[in-house]
Every structure is written in C-alpha cells, then in structure tokens.
Design brief:
Blueprint lengths: L5 H6 L7 E4 L3 E5 L7 E7 L14 H17 L7 E4 L15 E5 L14
Antiparallel strand pairs: 1-2, 2-3, 3-5, 4-5
Bound molecules: guanosine-5'-monophosphate.
The site of guanosine-5'-monophosphate has 12 residues, from loops.
Length: about 120
C-alpha cells in the first residue's frame, strides 16, 4: 500500500484544517496556502495517490468530487463569475501531495490556462 500523506490525517481529523465538507466518499478543506481568494481541496477519503491510480471502482468517488466542487462553488459564491478545477498528476503535473486532490480556485481571475512552453 502506498504511504499515506498528511491529507489522510486531515480526513481523520487527527490534524486541524478548515474543513468545509465531509461525507462517506470525500472531504473538502481550504488550502493552507491559497493561490486565489477561494482555494479549496476536494479529496477522496480513500488514499488514491494520483490520477494514475484511479480505477473503475473509484468512479463514484470521482463523480462525488465534482458534485461537491459545484456545491462548494455555490456556497462560497464563486459560481457566478466562474472558477477552475485542477487535478495535478506526477512530476510533469507538479503534484506535490501524493493523495489525489481537486483544487477549486476562484474569487478572482485565475489567469490563462497554461503558460506555453518556450519551445512551442
Ligand atoms: P499539488 O501541488 O499536490 O496539486 O497541491 C498540493 C496542495 O496542498 C498545495 O496547494 C498546498 O498548499 C496544499 N497543502 C499542503 N499541505 C497542506 C496542509 O497541511 N493543509 C492544507 N490545508 N493544505 C496543504
């Protein structure tokens, strides 16, 4: 089994967080270092290290992450002007925490989708 990260301890409430939502499949809490006024992480309760580890039996959890993102976007009032959902994976995706998570970012323009690489 892959090594747990700090997110598993947050999910189990062994470590403090600004938790906004939790059910039997997913947990959502505010990012400790917000990149925009609203920056929420939505994570599966089960330790799935990254998108590379998503299997068919995770489909309900992956769908729940999206419906919870939508619910929190409405609750935080960022739904009207829009927001961005991001899931980073692996080295090139610059994933830092090896517990799959969706970033919900809004409350201000999040900028262009990607800065194009110099070689393009
Ligand atoms: P990644 O780069 O892996 O997609 O994003 C990891 C995110 O987790 C970062 O935005 C980082 O600020 C956030 N993060 C890392 N450690 C903690 C923590 O202990 N608590 C909270 N709430 N967020 C964290």
């Amino acid at each position: 089994m892959a090594t747990e990260t700090i997110f598993s301890q947050i999910i189990r409430k062994e470590l403090p967080s600004d938790m906004l939502y939790q059910d039997e499949l997913v947990t959502a809490f505010r990012d400790i270092s917000p990149a925009r006024p609203t920056h929420i992480l939505i994570v599966p309760n089960e330790h799935i290290p990254s998108s590379n580890d998503v299997e068919a039996h995770h489909e309900a959890t992956m769908g729940r992450m999206h419906t919870v993102a939508r619910k929190l976007a409405v609750e935080t009032g960022i739904d009207k002007n829009g927001y961005r959902l991001i899931i980073n994976c692996g080295e090139h995706g610059r994933q830092e925490v090896l517990h799959l998570h969706m970033h919900l970012l809004g409350g201000a323009d999040v900028g262009p989708m990607l800065v194009r690489a110099q070689s393009e």
